[in-house]
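Continuing from the previous page of notes. For each protein in this section, the sequence appears first, followed by its structure tokens. Read the first protein now.
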Amino acid sequence: MELSYKRIKLLLSTVVAVCVVWACKTSREETRQPTGQKEEGLPKLKISENNRYFITGKNEPFFWLGDTAWLLFKKLNREEIETYLEDRKQKGFNVIQVMTLHSLDMANVYGDSALVGQNVSKPLVTPGNDPSDQAAYDFWDHVDYTVDLAEKKGLYMALVPVWGTNVKGGGVSQDEAEAYARFLADRYRSKNNIIWLNGGDTHGDQKTEVWHTIGNTLKAGDPDKLMTFHPFGRMQSIDWFNEASWLDFNMFQGGHRRYDQDDSPRGYGQDTWRYIEEGYGLSPIRPTLDGEPSYEGIPQGLHDTLQPLWTADDLRRYGYWSVFAGAAGFTYGHSAVMQMYRTNDKAAYGNKELWYDALHSTGSGQMIHLKNLMLHYPYLERIPDQSLVADQGEKYNYLVATRGKGYALIYTYNGRLLKINMGKISGDAIEARWYDPRTGKSIDIGTVENTGVREFDPPGEPRDGNDWVLVMTSKNG
């Protein structure tokens, strides 16, 4: 009986002793930069001197604007990956969050399995990486292609090594996790555009030893790459790993539930800014961000498909609330894109929209305005400062404020009247304007004395989604 390409690849992988994964050499690995050679491509990401933000190796501010593409490696071919990455580049995203292994039987759109025998310690690696040769182009070559293409487009890849359900279910032992993490560290050591998201929608107090093994092994094998832990909904990485030496920045999952649906111990509901506030004063100081807010187009509460869907308005609220509260960035998500939904797929969460149509969703095109606003002003001096707000409000009425020495930004989700305590930034007078998070355009207010409590009335009638940012800058600064 004639052997298929895939069976030949599996046999070939055994011949080349794939079980000793870190010793396997693909043609890509053979051309890896030797130590000390001049770096090319994207600069490495680092933590700022004040430990609150990200910077590049050139000490330039880096505002994390992420997109959630969990199943990209599984569902998209090379041409589709090009389409997706180019779209996200044009929309101003700079970090793409992806599951490396969604499941232990993971295979890509070409039918290439990621593992031998569903064992993470045995990645299925074959010699060569020519995409025209089905016997040579394997799952990991497909990952390499994506990482390299993303780098060319100025995008960083935030990779989850293995999704949490696989570890929680007992499918990954400590020894297997160590071997797998060594493989990843060795294979991607030369790639500056990789960030590690340990975990994956899971509790860090379950199989903790495996998560520490992955984190410590990746950090030992490739210490320059930033790493965090992607936690279960309405939880934070610091809930379990605040003292972990491998944790470079904090990530929380704001989750997908309304105020009345949140049954978690915190009970923050939609007040995602509270996660930032909670961890802001902890030691050691780290950057923090929401790595999974409510996705645009997904049901409120996630599982009941008869519930209303989260909208672009909600994503803007989550973004501005968390960033103004002190976050180092924000990750957007869309239900169809995160699962790369295609015709005839089994849809999750009742999704019916095709991924390539959802690329053009309203919210995805509006996230760049948050990034542009934050980087327009001196970024690394920025702090959250609620003392600017005389009437903070609750839930959708909540006003959140951030400032530098010569500027202040206050966000309202529903366009209600703002009462602002002046004198918090330098100068006897300030220039005020309204910034529209939907368009990135501004409306001048004029010059205002920088004293007392002053009222600012946003354009339009108060209603949820009529959101505005009050921008105040020192007239002499």
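Done with the first. The second protein uses the same format. Note its length before scrolling.
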Amino acid sequence: MARTYLVSFLFLFVSACASSSDFDMLKRDINDVRRDSYETKKDVDRLKERTTGVVKEDSFSAVRENQADINSRLTEVSSNLRELQGRFEEYKYNTEKTLKEAAAERDIARAQIASIETQIKAVKDKLASGEVAAQKQPEGQKAEPEQAKTEPATEEHAKEPANDKVKTNDKTKTYEAAYQAFKDKKYKDARGKFEGFLKEFPKDKLSGNAQFWIGESYYAEKDYESAILAYETLLKKYPESDKTSGALLKQGLSFIEIGDKKTGKTILARLLEKYPNSKEAPLAKKKIAELEKKPAGKNGKKR
């Protein structure tokens, strides 16, 4: 607006002082200046548009590059997480397997210790019987041979520790042989040996363990129905066994394997309620969580 006033003022001033030809020349110059100004403005506007487009394109390119970098990093992190999860599952499996084998080895060690204790007791009884017989011998009577001093005082007393010793040895050997067959994956042979052990020693402290391994042999063969019955026998006949929590876990898993997930989940929940601090409790909790996260089917129900 100020430029227009200035031009008008110059025009008036020149019109008063100049001739007609000078006026026409000045008017042409003014028009040329206006035209040049208009063209310059158009060039500036075009330059602005081009510059704006370049800035936007550069910005979009930077965003795309950042997004691609983030996606690449996320993919790498996911891959690392899957690898770590795989290692964890493998470690967990190996740990559980080691613990199970260690428990079985512990049972064998206990049986061996019991056998040794029985043998020591038998030796002590023999020594005590020999000392009593020596004290009761009349003065002047000829001493009996050394072998006689170590014999029990009566035949009945002699038979008891000897029989106990034989039974303990047989029991330990039978159990060890059955468990070795199980470790060798000879499940049918192991099952027969454990059943023989239970028939001969039905009330032994290892009877519950033997019944548990019978169930495990069926489970290893994927005969889940028979495994369920074997675990149930353990729970009913040997409720005080330290294998009851393990039997509940495997019984629940067996029901799930045959498709009865409702019963399996109920048994696992009972395990958590009855043995919340057992080593099987976390496994039961994880399995229940997996069952509850099953995807829904077409009708909206969980599969």
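What the second structure shows: Residues 138-160 have pLDDT under 50 and may be disordered. The chain has ten helices and no strands. We return to this in next week's lecture.
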